[in-house]
Amino acid sequence: GKPVVVIVGRPNVGKSTLFNRLVGQKLALVDDQPGVTRDRRAGDATLLGLDFTLIDTAGFETEDEQTLPGRMRAQTQAAVREADVALFLIDGRAGLTPLDREIANWLRGLDTPIVLAANKCEGKAGEAGRLEAYELGLGEPFAMSAEHGEGVVDLFEGLREHI
Ligand code: GDP
Ligand code: MG
C-alpha cells in the first residue's frame, strides 16, 4: 500500500491544520483549544506529486500527567510505531516546551524515522524557536507554516528521504 506518514506533536502546534491542507478535506477538527482532535484520523495526501496516507494524532492533548487519557496516547504511540516516517511538529513561535522535550525523548527511542519541523514560521517568524529545536537531537529542523502553505519543498524533501 501507500507509505504512511504520521503527524505528531503537542497540542496546538498545527498538526490538524497541516493534515487538512495536505489531505484537502476537512477531516480533522482544528481549534484553538487543545483536545479537539479526539482520535487519529487518516486521509490520502498529495505533496508535490508524492502520494501517501497521512495520519493526524492527538495523543498528547493533556499536559496533566496524572490524568493522561491512556487510550488516546496509546493510539498515537501505535500510529507512530506503524508509520514509515513521523513528522514531529513544534511551534517555532512558542519555542520548546517541556512536553516537546518529553515527546522528543520518546521518539528518539523508536525505530520510526523522524522529520522535525518548526511550524508557524510564516515570513521570518519562529526562527529562534526553529534554532532551539536543534536541542531535541532529532536532526535539522526546517521552517514551515501549515496555515500559509510555506516550507512545502523542505517538507517534501524531508519526507521523500523515507518514503
Ligand atoms: P493541533 O492541536 O496540533 O492539531 O493544532 P491545530 O491545527 O488545531 O492548530 C492550533 C492553532 O494554531 C489554530 O488556531 C491554528 O489556526 C493555528 N495554526 C496552525 N498552523 C499555523 C501556522 O502555520 N501559523 C500560525 N500563525 N498559526 C497556525
Ligand atoms: Mg489537532
From TrEMBL:
It comes from the Bacteria. GTPase that plays an essential role in the late steps of ribosome biogenesis. Associates with the 50S ribosomal subunit. Residues 3-163 form the EngA-type G domain. The lineage of its organism: Bacteria, Pseudomonadati, Pseudomonadota, Alphaproteobacteria, Sphingomonadales. It comes from Sphingomicrobium sediminis. GTP 1 binds at residues 9-16, 56-60, 119-122. Belongs to the TRAFAC class TrmE-Era-EngA-EngB-Septin-like GTPase superfamily. EngA (Der) GTPase family. The chain holds residues 6 to 168 of 472 of the full protein. This is GTPase Der.
